[in-house]
Amino acid sequence: MKTQSRWLDPILAFAIFSICWLLYNATLTPGLSYASFDGNELTTVAYTLGLAHPTGYPLFTWLGFLFSHLLPLGEVAHRTNLMCATMGAGGVALLYLILRRVDLSRAVAAFAALYFGASTTFWSQAVITEVYAPNVFMLAGTVLVLLIWAHHTEARRQTLERDSGFHPSTFILLPSFALLFGLSLGTHMSNLGFAPAYALFVLLTDWRVLTRPLTMLASFVAFLLGLAQFLWIPLRGATINDPLLPRVSSNPLFGMYAYTLGAFSNLRFAFPITALPERVVVYLGYLNQNFTVVGIALGVLGAWVLLFRHPKRFWLFAAMYFIHVFFFAQYKVFDLDVFFIPSHFIFAIFVAFGAQQLLAWFHAARGSAPARVISIAASVAIMVLLFALVALLAVGNAKANDRRGDTAIGDFYRNVFAMLPRDSVLISRRGVFGYDMYYWRAVYHARPDVAMPMYESKRARAPNAPLFTTVRVVNGQPQGGAWAPPRGALPADAWYIPVLVGNQRDLVLYRASATPPQLIAADAPSPTRVNHVFDGVTLLDYDWVEVPDAPSPRVHLKMYWRVTSPRVYLISTRVDDLTLETHDLGFGNLPRYLREMRVPRAPIVVEEYDLVLPSHLKKGAHAFRIGLAEFSPTGIEMRWVEVGSVQVR
Is residue 1 pLDDT above 60, yes or no? Predict the structure, then answer.
């Protein structure tokens, strides 16, 4: 191989990495996000070097620790988001090298790698803190080293070298593969399911490896070395007492098993075998969403070509693919699409072989010079169309996955900690859902005077301390369930009064009060000021005041509503075309208030709270609207009334 050819693939791989990194960074989430409920926990755990929820993700935690402490860019959550973008782009670059290793052309390899890199599900996970993009990096590295081992083994056989049982290159490569395989389980435990495919490929490539005890022993030890990362679970679990996490058993072996392979057993194979066709249809929907009909057709063609022309590689990739799809098609989770990312990664390899075969058909013309020119022109046209498909996919998915404006959690909690009274008490949800609040205490040590009983069980609470919560309140009561605070943490007979509302669902700070809020007024200050009539309710008056010195834009909002037809009303606020929040009139307190208090007919309901505006709004005036959801036989329609403008300074 010429020197310039040897360096061309690394250069192209770096170019592909750079393209994807720029795309992901341009759409990167600036901080915490609800795009992944686990992401806020993973960010906090990585920075504090703690223990993540099952299956523990030790390698991810350690990499996140390095990124969050060594990268001086933005806040900590931004750094871990950037880590996932970087490793995601690295996984796409490694996919290019894998495709070159299986003898595909550079143009086809670049197309298929970028096609996967621009797919919507993978992109969505490369712009937040989650395990899936780093897992693709580890999966790609594992497969690439395995293929390099196979190449060296086959090259040695072709040169008719004597099989002495010891070859430096293969002796190093197979244990290196085993080490990477063990390490990859620290980004996602489901990679263990690829073991049968890996073993089959090794035996098909060189079954004599079984007769080389030194190589087998070195590979086994290397795999165990990769697995040793899971000792982090009992070691770290014994030193921390985090009420947001499941308890780790005192028995190290049982604790590791329960926290890894034994975790989420209720979610695995949760559907009867008769539901498998339906589950496959669900998967095909995800496949179409990521690759389109064109990509699926190329993938089917590529798998067929691979079977007959490269059977060893076919059984590696096909076994990996079908094992993964079969397992997760029967997995019962609400975010199922992200679990198929590794199978999408493998399907991109099939797509590459399909594209290569398509080009071969057009490039195989024989005969006259004009015929050869036409075939070359057709091949070039096909590649142009394929890269145009990637560009169209990237444009659409860039818009769908643009999370630059996802600042709601940071905007909300900076205001929470700025407005809480001294020595107050703040209670959040449990589990991974509580880390949207705990992050600020664990990472930035926000408001040490504020007691957080969910995390500081031994800290004494001041008597009669003001009590606040960010737990969702439904019908005037904190929501229960598995993620609710312990029984008794929030009094059942209290009134939960909203004092701060964020610009995303479930971002509400409530104050627990023994006395009801001033929910009903005798009259509005100036009913002729607005007097906007909706169906069954009238907006009589409103007022807002910009809160000075707030950490991010915030207004104090007060609205007066005359209710003429008692029922549930959904109220929304909007800045320009961005809906900030939606709540039921009275924030769930109105039914109880009507039951327990004496109120006039057609009462005037008063809503008063601070509203957080997005920090990413440009400076200047922005139209402010108040809306009401109206229900009709054709669906739900929002009716908006513009009530002025707010200034962002």
Answer: no
